[in-house]
Amino acid sequence: MRGVMRKIILVQIIVILLTLYSGKVQAVQQAFLIQNSGWMEPFYNDVHSEFKPLIIAIIEAVADPGKPFIVLTFNQTTSHNQSPTIIYNSTIGAGLREAVVSAKISYERTQYICLIGG
Question: pTM score > 0.85 for this model?
């Protein structure tokens, strides 16, 4: 299962990089999307996960120096969760690392009704 998730993340990263390097995007502010749905929990909660450091490294390598960009987390939009959410809106700087490291999983709030019969 973990191998499948890594492949999915790799594909997402490749798609983002290809989009960023396409000629059509050059005139538009750069945006980096980070998925934060529940199935990503192992990458957010594992202290040895390289997920967030990889995101930071990709952004630092791809972002245009001195030009502003945004970093957003995204998930399913529900009445309890607005998505995407901007977590960083600036140029490369110290706040980027803090914003990405502090990103959390977005859990959908579900109400459960327990019926006890007699």
Answer: no
